[in-house]
Amino acid sequence: MDGADAHAQPQHEGSRTHSADEQDGPLAAEKLEDFHSAEWQSRERHFLVLSSAGKPIYTRYGNEAQLSTLMSAVQAIIASFNDMSDPVRSMNTGSHTIVFYINGPLYLLAVSSRNDPEELLRSELQLVHSQIVSILTLAQLTKIFEQRSSFDLRQLLGGTEGIIDQLVDRLDTDLSFALGSLDTLWMRYRLRERIGKTLLNHRPKGLLYAMVVADTKLVTLMRPRKHSLHPADLHLLFNMASSRGFLTGEHWTPVCFPRFNDQGFLHVYINYIAPSVALILVSADRDSFFAMTKYRELVCQELSADDLLQRLGDAAAQRALHPRELGVSGLLQLYYRHKTLVQHFGTRFEDSVDDAQMRRIINTYKRLRLHMTKGGQKPLRIIYYRCATDMVLAWQSSTFELYAAVAPSMDVKGMIRLVNTVLEWVKTEEDHLFVINSPSY
Amino acid sequence: MLHCPFINFHVCTHVGEAAVGKSSLVLRFVNDEFRENKEPTIGAAFLTQKVRLDDSVLKLDIWDTAGQERFHSLAPMYYRNAQAAVVVYDITRASSLDRAKAWIKELQRQANPNIVIALVGNKLDMVAENDNAEEEEVSEEHEDNGEDGDGKTRQIATATARAYADELGLLFVETSAKSGEGVVEVFTEVAKKLDLSQIASAGRGGRPGQLNAGNVNVNVLGEGGLGASDGSIRSKTDGCAC
Questions:
Q1: Which residues are bridge partners to A171 per DSSP?
Q2: Does A251 contact B70 at a Cβ distance shorter than 8 Å?
Q3: What CATH number is given for A182-317 in this structure?
Q4: pLDDT digits (tens, 9 = 90+) for A185-206
Q5: Fewer CB atoms inside 10 Å of the end CB: C or N, chain B?
Q6: Domain A323-433 has CATH 3.30.450.30
Q7: Per the CB < 8 Å rule, is B59 touching A243?
Q8: Choosing among B1, B13, B46, which should be mutated to test the A contact, i.e. which has the most A CBs within 10 A?
Q9: Where are the compositionally biased (Acidic residues) regions (chain B) (predicted)?
Q10: Does B33 touch chain A (CB under 8 A)?
């Protein structure tokens, strides 16, 4: 294969780029919002990060530099409680819940106007913190602020705001983070197996993990027999790799995996081998880029020869399953989590569901899960939730967790019937839904 | 099919500050496309593109490195074995030339002594209309004015940068990644200046006398980046279309 072609941009790039470009407008506008403005104040959720010296580091909306007065005020509040040796954890203003998460030199703050539970917001702040650690390592973060408590961390985080923005947005539309398991792509069992074998066939020395990821959904993952990466680390990695900057060319960058080792970097290779399909390789050796690029070439050669790359691309193009593909009607969306495999799949939303309802449903799932998993000695097994607009069921057994939203017109009996049909379907499709045998060496 | 050897040139396009348009420059060169508000590079990106010279086709291996400070310590990895470096600054931001100069110093001290360095002033499109009038009197005083997108003015005169480049024997081109102006020229000029015979005799996969194609590793470095170490020398012996 000619080298230039091997690295050439895939054909689909043009159209992707175009549609992505259209999104620049609103995103750029969000960053220009002034915090006195109505838009800024009407945001349902704000995520802010500042240093213990009160220096602004990050805000989802608006420009953090213009929020310095606000950041100083937050710092003063936190500091005054610290003096009483009883750190502030949350505040409720009636209309807003404010949750603080303090980790070393970083203060993180979430503000929600929709009554999100405190635990939920705190766990989301912890993820934002982990994403920052994944960029810098905790060692570097700690050292910098030890040397200069007034350090402006934006100098070091520069260029990664987009990754944190993406994470914050996903928290609101994707249950994966809350489930703590890996989202998998539905595909034929044999196809997945053959891709896994191909990854294993060409493994060079120094390659620790190799994974194929379609739009943050796992296709397969090759790993050492005795180690596996924590799903939370992979969520952060997949979130990063889905950033548009990686779509063109081969990429090589240090990444810290906080749950694996928050003190150091591993080195990550990212290349899109088919439309929205990324090959992600993890190595401990920062000089191994060319071994990785050679490996990619071999893997792609083998996959193309058997037409697997095309079929993988087709599977990825479908993205998530449509609710109707589960053989039921009236289902709006569903997540099924396999407890032993620590994997889950989620369908997309029925076309009739608008953005606001989508967020509301995901938010309901999160709350119901909180009830089920933190429910004390006798946790609830099944919760049926109904309001004027939504009807949601959460159910956990010893082997699975299930979250389903159905048309509000459906009655309870209908809903139970629907869920039972889905469970039957999952049983027959299990091999294709999940990564059953991940290749290991 | 003609069987031709590729010779690696590790051209290190090494760009000064963050957000001067390094990746946009490379993207224009490699894919002939441009994206407004392109997201910053994380780590480094590796891309390849061919350039056509009078009697040969060279394949350039390009490292496009991130401009952010946290990647600075990785930069030597990318320029260590580079045959060329493209150092980019933003003509509407005076501070970016200072940063570029610092990079050039570092390259001259630490990189391959024969490295070909090109100094590139990007974002020509932003000053296209009012350029001629203002060029004479730009000063480096309004360092911080170049922040917002609209109404940018040139802060670095062509003559100033050219004089600096001439003095140090660097290639010098002003470009617009947006319009494409000057972009191919940068890489063609770099390729022309590379000492092909030296690269061929260095035994990197090329057979003397068949020098009709070659690989050039170009590093586009920002304020940091990854280095191609020995591993960067990739011999391509398969057939190519040239």
A1: none
A2: no
A3: 3.30.450.30
A4: 999 999 999 999 999 999 999 9
A5: N
A6: yes
A7: no
A8: B46
A9: 131-148
A10: yes
Name the 3-class secondary structure at A315.
helix
User: Residue for token digits 């979250």?
Assistant: A403
Q: Chain B contacts of A294, Cβ < 8 Å?
A: 234
Residues A125 and A107: their CA atoms lie apart, in Å, by 10
User: With left for phi above 0 and alpha for psi between -120 and 50, is residue A50 left, alpha or beta?
Assistant: beta
Q: ipTM more than 0.85?
A: no
Give every CB contact of residue B62 below 8 A, 6+ residues apart in sequence: B11, B13, B26, B29, B30, B46, B47, B48, B49, B217, B218, B219, B220
Structure tokens at B163: 């004089």
Instruction: Inform me whether the C-beta atom of residue B166 falls under 8 Å from chain A C-beta atoms.
Output: no
The shortest CB-CB distance from B241 to any of A2, A244, A289 is to A2
Tens-digit pLDDT profile for residues A337-395: 999 999 999 999 999 999 999 999 999 999 999 989 876 777 789 999 999 899 999 99
What residues does each domain of chain B span?
A: 11-143+151-225
Does domain A33-173 fall under CATH 3.30.450.70? My reply is yes
The pTM of the whole model exceeds 0.95: no
pLDDT digits (tens, 9 = 90+) for B161-176: 999 999 999 999 999 9
Helix (H, G, I), strand (E, B) or coil at A219: strand
Domains A182-317 and A323-433 share a fold: yes
Q: Is A13 on the interface with B (CB under 8 A)?
A: yes
B77–A287 C-beta distance less than 8 A: yes
Determine the Cα–Cα distance for residues A132 and B146; give it in Å rounded to an integer.
28
In our burial notation (b when 16+ CB lie closer than 10 A, e otherwise), range A71-103 reads beebbebbeeeeeeeeebeeeeeeeebbbbbbe
Instruction: Determine whether the interchain pair B36/A293 forms a contact, defined as Cβ–Cβ distance below 8 Å.
Output: no
Domain ranges within chain A, ordered by starting residue: 33-173, 182-317, 323-433
Minimum Cα–Cα distance from A20: chain B residue: B35
Assigned token pair, B177: 């990644």
Any B CB within 8 A of A159 CB: yes
B228 touches chain A (CB under 8 A): yes
- Mapped onto helix, strand or coil, the DSSP state of residue A232 is helix
Q: DSSP characters for chain B?
A: --------BBEE----STTSSHHHHHHHHHH----TTPPPP-SEEEEEEEEE-SS-EEEEEEEEE--SGGGGGGTHHHHTT-SEEEEEEETT-HHHHHHHHHHHHHHHHHS-TT-EEEEEEE-GGGGTTTHHHHGGG--S--GGGGGSSSS----S-HHHHHHHHHHHT-EEEE--TTT-TTHHHHHHHHHHHS-HHHHHHTTSSPPTT--SEEEEEEEE-SSS-----GGG-----S----
CATH: 3.40.50.300, 3.40.640.10, 3.40.190.10, 3.40.50.2300. Which one for B11-143+151-225?
3.40.50.300
